[in-house]
Hints:
2 domains, Rossmann fold, alpha/beta, Dihydrodipicolinate Reductase, domain 2, 5-stranded mixed sheet
Amino acid sequence: MKSVMFIGYGSMARKVHEMLPNNIVLSTVLVSHRSAERIKAEIGESIEVITSIDDLVKVPDLAIEMSGQDGLKEHAIKILQKSIPLGIVSVGAFTDENFAVSLADTAEASGVKIHILAGAVAGIDGINAASLAGLSDVVYQGRKHPSSWQGSYADQLIDYDNLAEPTVFFTGTAREAAALFPDNSNVAATIALAGVGLDDTIVELIADPTLEHNIHHITAEGVFGKLEISMTGLPLAENPKTSSLAAFSALRLCCQIDQVIQI
């Protein structure tokens, strides 16, 4: 029986917990002080609920972060120092170069791996494989209904009242996109880290009044040829802001703990 620890216990973590196979148990949940008592009451006494890694009793086989960038930055280093492998959903945090270097150095010193999860998009394995031979261009397009962009920096770039057709309102690097649109930084950063890096990956953000669901579109060209992926991302029923595929990518990593043959 293998055990996992979750950092965060929101809608994504709840879905992963619900779908864990019988040979993998959730042993520990690491959450904020303000939510600890509520989560204890929700999940029962069989699962340890802690607010600091210093309070950890049973060391798990794997930790998975599903808490957002703040939670990752608060707990990741201490988790790695305890020689616990770490899966990361909030990949946008890697745009902080000092933090990214600290993570890598700590993992190496502790002899454990950091797993960057594919999250809400597909094709990351192909992009990463192609990068070994050389990529010339990687472009990510994030297309959403205008209402999904409201409340972000897009408010300064889009005239919502007069938007009648799909409109590209931002073009820049993955690093720039992550800084200006942190809620969308995980996808852009994941594609960039798999391929040509944060400063050479182009991001185009589109407001499309004809859409019902978000669309992710990736193109990559290089020695291997050309890759093109377009996918419609459906959210979790429990939370419209959370990608269902991102939750399933975290579940996949949990399942791999005990898999002899891995894909």
